[in-house]
Amino acid sequence: MTNWSVILKIARTHLTTKMKSTVTAALGVTFGIGAYITMAGFMTGLNNLLDGLTLNRTPHIRLYNEIAPSKKQPVSLYTDFKGAFNVVTSIKPKETQIKIHNALPILKYLKTKEDVKGATPQLQAQIFYLSGSIELGGILIGADIMEEARLSNINDYIVSGSPEALKNNANGILLGAGLADKMSLSVGDRIQVATVSGSIFPLKIVGIYQSGLAEIDNAQSYVNLKTAQRILGQPENYITDIHIKLFDIEAAPAMAKRLERQFDIQAIDIKEANAQFETGSSIRNLITYAVSLTLLIVAGFGIYNILNMLIYEKMKDIAILKATGFSGRDVSLIFISQAVIIGLLGGILGLMVGFGLSVLIDNTPFETEALPTIKTYPINYNPLYYVIGIGFALLSTFIAGYLPANKAKNMDPIKIIRGT
Amino acid sequence: MKLVLETRNINKHFYKPKDFHVLKDISFGIQPGEFTSIVGKSGCGKSTLLYILSTMDTEYTGELYLNGQLITGKSNEELSRIRNRHIGFVFQFHYLLSEFSVLENVMLPAKKLAEKSLEEIEHDAQEKLKMLHIGHLAQQRASRISGGEKQRVAIARALINNPTILMGDEPTGNLDSHNSENVFNIFKNLAQEKGLSLLVVTHDNDFAKRTDRIIEMEDGSILK
Ligand SMILES: Nc1ncnc2c1ncn2[C@@H]1O[C@H](COP(=O)(O)OP(=O)(O)OP(=O)(O)O)[C@@H](O)[C@H]1O
Ligand SMILES: [Mg+2]
Fold it and tell me: Residue B103: which region, alpha, beta or left (left: phi > 0; alpha: psi -120 to 50)?
């Protein structure tokens, strides 16, 4: 049976009479945990921001048709020339359309799949923007804008106007911010687009779209899918891209491969498209944990040292406690609880310091053209980091306290009493 | 009558720096309520014997019984409990937890035992201190009292759990004749009225002569 109230009372007395070393040890832990919370919050905030910048608007899987020369030329099918050395010069791709042939059945099929969060059709076309005498080349995307808003964070990048405004206006366009700047147009103004084949179509600007990536903002605009089909003079099944969002991003590569085979189509998954981002995130995480762990190990050594000194100072106390009936286990618990109290106090203070610094960073202005929705540095307040932080503090102080406590546990009271 | 404490053929060697047979065939018993003193020249093994009897030292051969129960060979955890419950011990030098108050020092073994409420323990501790004429020091830090006072606090602490036997290694060594007399009378009373057994090492021949029984030691053996 362990009598915690006595043990904690003795531990507390030891700690309060050695206030200076207690505070030093606790501050070491505070420093480690505070740094961990701040760094974890900031680094993952940054990760999320960068992920959001590119990954969130990249579909998990993109289906499209690529125009490429066929790998098997007709001559190789011809048995008469089998084994012969055939030379085919000036290979050209077969004349075909970039539309997805069976787009509507594919969409229907995808919508029945359980792991698919959503699939949206797009029509991407080269066009010219005309305003007065200015003529700019660009890309027009016809999309189901409400579905896009549900599946991606496109909403964050519509700096004026709204997806609803586009949906409700058959002749509306969400103009790229760079285009709007160049042509000095704003919401409510009119613009004309010309297709490659020459037909001209008037549109009304219902919103401005700023992705933060200049090459996109200077070229790309959104219209409703039907509008785009009408502009290009194409039927309702004319779709060039299908964007798929899954519930589990990890399933994307496998699924992309499957769809490629199943529908004889090009499928590119998010991992393939953004391989470099994964690496960036994991390196930032590595730095966070390496720095925090180093600080905590230093703090742990501090605690180990202080407790080690303490047990030599308190050797007589240990002998008395053992002589009056405290077991070795009781004695070791006295010292372990001192370590854990230091860890708990230092850790809680560290959480508060970390939170305070996070709030400070969170309120530091950080404005950049590239990120229209971001006004301050990003911070991730995930409670998990706070749980890990305090767990970390308790674990490291427990380990630091365990060794000295074990030494105290095994001390022979008679040797101490005899003074040897 | 049933013996409170009994030893059978206890032998102990120190092996460092060289083999030294410090206790030789110690066999004796102590009756309930018996006030026994141990005398002998310095270095004859009195403290060594007392450490074995108090269960703190387990490196010996032979058998030790407390209340008829074999103590030898029990686990450290059990020995701690036995010490806490049944044995009061006063060291040759007064050992107190210097950062605690006098009262807290006395209360500590009772808190560990946890048989009584905190109020009862505190009340008992006050009583023991008063009995030893140091009631007024209860709230004083243990490091801020005199050597003789410390010795009496240690006695109060040894008595707090109403042990079966009290062992003392020169418990009056640091006391003036007046306080020494007082402690002797308290011991005598405890033995007669409460049936407490006492085993006290002393160099004070007058003290020894007035106890019920004297065990004389020489070179690790009991003479009589
Ligand atoms: N750890 C040890 N290692 C070796 N020899 C020891 C050790 N402890 C004590 N001794 C020796 O054992 C003998 C008995 O010591 P002990 O302390 O029991 O004597 P004592 O009778 O209590 O003496 P005093 O009256 O001076 O307190 C002494 O000769 C001492 O030198
Ligand atoms: Mg001695």
Answer: alpha
B141, β-bridge pairs? B101
Residue A104 has pLDDT above 90, yes or no: no
Regions of chain B short of the pLDDT cut 70? 1, 224
How many angstroms does the Cα of residue B64 sit away from the middle of ligand 2?
20
Lowest mean pLDDT among A25-29, A257-261, A296-300: A296-300
CA dist., res. A71 & res. A75, Å (int): 11
Assess contact for A235 and A229: CB atoms under 8 A.
yes
The domain segmentation of chain A, as residue ranges, is 4-55+277-418, 61-76+91-272
DSSP assigned state of B137: G
The A residues from 341 to 400 touching B (CB cutoff 8 Å) are none
- pLDDT, tens digit, for every residue of A293-313? 887 787 778 778 888 888 888
B3-50 pLDDT, tens digit per residue, is 999 999 999 999 988 999 999 999 999 999 999 999 999 999 999 999
Taking contacts as CB-CB distances below 8 angstroms, the residues of chain A near B164 are: none
Nearest alpha-carbon partner for A338 in A410, A407, A397, A408: A397
Residue/partner pairs of A309-312 with CB below 8 Å, 24 or more apart: A309/A21, A310/A14, A310/A18, A310/A21, A310/A335, A310/A338, A310/A404, A311/A335, A311/A404, A311/A405, A311/A407, A311/A408, A311/A411
Domains of chain B (ranges; CATH) run: 5-222 (3.40.50.300)
> ipTM value of the model?
0.91
Q: What is the distance in A from the centroid of ligand 1 to the CA of A185?
A: 103
Contact criterion met (CB below 8 Å) for A45 and A377: yes
User: Does the reported pTM lie above 0.90?
Assistant: no
Whether the CB-CB separation of A291 and A285 falls below 8 Å is answered with no
User: Taking the CB of residue A366, how many other CB atoms lie within 10 A of it?
Assistant: 14
* Orientation angle between helical segments A315-323 and A275-313, nearest 10 degrees: 70
Which band of pLDDT confidence, cut at 50, 70 and 90, is reported for residue A276?
low
Query: Does the CB of B50 have a partner CB in chain A at under 8 Å?
Result: no
Q: How far apart are CA B173 and CA B185, in angstroms?
A: 15
